[in-house]
Amino acid sequence: MRRFVFEVVEGVRIAGQAIWANKMRSTLTTLGVIIGIAAVTLMATVINGLDQEFEKALSQLGTDVLYVDQFPWGQNADREWWRLRNRPAIQPALAETIQERSRFAEAAAPMIDTDQQTTYRGREVEAEVMGSPPQYGRIRNVELRRGRFYTQAEERAGRQVCVIGATIAEELFPAITPLGKEVKMGGVPCTVVGVQTKKGESMFGGPGSPDERILMPFRTYDKVFGVSRREGVTVMAKVGNSALMNRAEEELTGIVRTARGVGPGEENNFAINDQQQVMDSFASVRIAIYGVGLFLTGLALVVGGIGVMNIMFVSVRERTKEIGIRKAVGAKRRTILFQFLVEAVIVCLIGGVLGLGLSALGTMGVSALGLNASLPAQTVGLAFAICVGVGILFGIAPAWQAATADPIDALRYE
């Protein structure tokens, strides 16, 4: 064991000396490894950030909520739009039917939205104005920072009250409380009764994010903006238990088919959506990003590995006489092999460290753009493991050439 430890330490020392003696050459050799490691770590960082942002945006839909809509969510809707557009629109009364007949739906409510310029005393912001009954707050788990949610009485009376998002409150009311103030949406006045808790910026933000959304009673929305029977609404149904989603969807399908007069054997003229469909659509995008990233990363690492192999062959040739002397005084084949393998691995690790430095700078840049990017420890560990693998894979050939060199020929080499 002592002899093995000595050989390891001695091999690392000699490899380090050889690399230090050719600092510039070793650094230039690692350019491919640097690019490859920077690419793989930055790709993992961006994908991780995209996953977090997507889950953050998706959580707003709720894991236990089903959405009855005219069109299905996901990629198929775009491809089949020409056929699906002839479906009859979803009408608001369907929510009451679901509420009355469903055993699994704890609450059901229609919702509809439109983008409007919202103003208060000269300040202006674009917002998504959404009309939905008070059940919306329960179905979508709306949290309030100030004030209250509108009531069922205000829904029945069609009162012009609203709950605004945190960003709207900050932009329209930077120094005063919004509660009790009257904002105008498309010229229509509405009294603010509540402010939602800030959800934070998202790459999927803009009009439509909770912070930039205004909620009002459904009847008020119908009175102010009108609900088109041709365009219809979306009906939400909160199941309450995500384990019952499949059974709830089957029950809901039967209820909606009956309500819309779909006969036996006829195709559904509606879609029941949930967040899983959005996740499936994003998964294909994620796989595509991974595929392109891995291809480019693999290409850079192969180029870098070939560069390392080439320079190691040069190193073996330059130190042929040294190899002969070491063999002549009793150095074993495995000692020579280990020495040059360690040298190749150290060269790759240097490239890995520089690549991680570039990746860290790239992560800071991505974070500055608003994406929640970070460089986790497991990604750093993966990068170093890749460096060791590349060093061994592309260093084994020159190391074997050195280890199997004939000592007499090596001593005669000039």
Automatic annotation (TrEMBL):
Membrane topology: Multi-pass membrane protein
Domain of life per record: Bacteria
Record-linked InterPro entries: ABC3_permease_C, MacB_PCD, Macrolide_Exporter_MacB
Residues passing through the membrane, by range: 28-50, 287-315, 336-361, 381-403
Keyword terms, alphabetized: ATP-binding, Cell membrane, Membrane, Nucleotide-binding, Transmembrane, Transmembrane helix
Cellular location(s): Cell membrane
Record domain MacB-like periplasmic core: where: 26-253
One family name in Pfam for this protein: MacB_PCD
Gene Ontology cellular component annotations, sorted alphabetically: plasma membrane
Molecular function GO terms recorded: ATP binding; transmembrane transporter activity
Primary location group: membrane
Protein name (database record): ABC transporter, ATP-binding protein
Gene coding for it: ybjZ
